[in-house]
Amino acid sequence: MTIRLIGFPFSGIVLRVIICLKELGIPYELDPPASYKSLRDEDYKANKHPFAKIPVLFDGDFKITESRAICRYLVSKYQGKYNDTILIPNDVHKAGLVDQFISYEFSYYDPPLSKLLYQEKVVKSLNRDQDPEVIKQAREELAKVLDVFEKLLEGKEYLNGEYSLADIFLCPNSYYVYDAGHSDLWDNRPNVKNWWNRLYNRDAIKKSFEETKSFWENNPKF
Amino acid sequence: MTIRLIGYSALYPTLRVIICLKELGLPYELEPPASYQSLKDEDYIANKHPFGKIPVLFDGDFRITESRAICRYLTSKYQGKHNDTILIPNDVHKAGLVDQFISYELSYYDPPLSKLVYQEKFAKKFFNKDPDPEVIKQAREELAKVLDVYEKLLEGKEYLNGEYSLADLVLCPGTNYVYGAGHSDLWDSRPNVKNWWNRLCNRDTNKKSFEEIKSFWENLGK
Lengths: 222, 222
Prior knowledge:
The structure holds two protein chains of two kinds.
Chain A: E1 3-6, H1 12-23, E2 28-31, H2 42-47, E3 56-59, E4 62-65, H3 67-78, H4 92-125, H5 132-152, H6 165-182, H7 184-187, H8 190-200, H9 203-218
Parallel strand pairs in A: 1-2
Antiparallel strand pairs in A: 1-3, 3-4
Helix pairs in contact in A: 1-3, 1-6, 1-9, 4-5, 4-6
Chain B: E1 3-6, H1 12-23, E2 28-31, H2 42-47, E3 56-59, E4 62-65, H3 67-78, H4 92-127, H5 133-153, H6 166-169, H7 172-183, H8 185-188, H9 191-201, H10 204-220
Parallel strand pairs in B: 1-2
Antiparallel strand pairs in B: 1-3, 3-4
Helix pairs in contact in B: 1-3, 4-5, 4-7
Keywords (chain A): Transferase
GO cellular component, one term (chain A): cytoplasm
EC number (chain A): 2.5.1.18
């Protein structure tokens, strides 16, 4: 039975799971909800996500929510089944460090990045003005985080040396913010710049962003 | 070689790791830093935590940071070695659901909870600020909505994933603080949540850990 992924392909959070599915070579069907509003329906909360969020993944009868948990589950179950790609190493220490970097993404990288994402992508669609003070502070906060990443990436191609789930998780929203006029934050730091270019050029990641582009082209009024 | 944990037991991310170590029957040494300011020293940032945070765990030469990543690592490496306690089930689907509930904790439960912890426990004693009643009111409302969802999730279950797991452990320390700081009604007014919290409070490891914290605060007052 094919895996069913409920979500919008332009959502950075859903894209994490799409990239993971593609990296592991797992076939899936994407099932976008009718609208963001429909996530608040009683039926959605009862049968899909109790907090009314996306993504939700069905693997046969098994339902799992929350992008990071979904990706860990997919890796646990399918890593090595369709191809050789390793997203979480088998060695317990290396896997521990991947988890650590996943936590850095959640704790330090994502907060300022999400503020920028909101200002650059969501505010306009709600017909509101951007707040330049919020953008300035978020840029400063993200710059400090990227200074740490610059050191963490010294002598390494990816956060944990080899490509892993930790790199995937910060890809999608980084792409949106990078593309929205803040590329200098990544490009001014040589290790970060090289790492970002490497990620951007991975097949699975390129294809995932292409899917997003074609969703917008086919649904311009969404 | 004994495990070395750098942190303050009064701060609940450190306490998460302490509870996990106790649950798995692992001996450890707690090493509080010289001061909170010392976390920003160049040496600490270079050799302990690149973002200047606690806790940090050393297992021999292996260093790992971020409380939930540390707990997953300890479980991965030591579950079943010192006792029979299962924090992450071996079955891939059950483990996936534990991960999902850990993600609910960090995405929905912890944000309002940590605001209440700060307001009730730390604002006055450590930062000389009076608790802000508006922040407390909003955080209570947000946490109440989350606990309404938990009330449904716990229907017919003793713990979040049926059996006790890391998903319950991670929210114990912060909950203990807020419950004991005048907000017990949030848990006690919801029957499933109330029973679940009582069960958690009665676990040996939690009882012992919460006693340790109580004496920290009592001594602080002197």
